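In response to reviewer comment 3 from the previous cycle, which asked for concrete evidence that the modeling workflow produces usable outputs, we include below a single protein chain processed end to end. The sequence was submitted unchanged, and the resulting C-alpha cells are shown without manual editing.
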Amino acid sequence: MNRYLMFALMLPVSGLGGAAFAQPQQQVDPARFADRIMEADANRDGKVSRAELTAYRKQQWARIDRNGDGYFSKDDLPRFAQGKWETGRPAEVRRLYDSNGDGRVSQAEFVNGPTVAFDMADANRDNIVTRDELDSAIAMTRAKRAGG
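The workflow returned the following C-alpha cells.
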C-alpha cells in the first residue's frame, strides 16, 4: 500500500481532526487503521460491508465539516493547521475526494468517494471486509515497507 492507500484506510475513521494534519508525515502502523476501520462494523458481526462503511462515513461527516457549511474546506481546519491546506493531508483529501474539482469536499463526495483501502482488502470482491482480509493487507503493507 502506498501513502495514499494508507491515508484512504485512515479516512473513514479518522475524523480528519486538525491535530492529524499538523503532524509531520510519518510511517503509521497499518494495524492501527485496520482496527479503526473495524469500528464501522455496525452490527458487530466481525465484518465491515461496503454499506456499513458508507454509513460510517456519513456519521463521521460532522467531525470533518467542523463549521457545518456542507463542505470540508480550509475553514474546517484549526488555524495552526491551515498552512497544510495546499501541501499536507488536506491536499491529499482533496485529490482523493474532490470529484468536481471545486477545491473542497462535499458530504456526498466524501461519503460516496473512493474506497481504495476497502477495495484492496476485499480480496474475494464480495463487498465485505473481514478481519482476516485486513490482516492480510497489513502483512502485505509491512512486507512492502520492509522492501519485500
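The beta strands are 47-49, 71-72, 105-106, 128-130. We consider this sufficient to address the reviewer's concern, and the full set will be provided in the supplementary archive.
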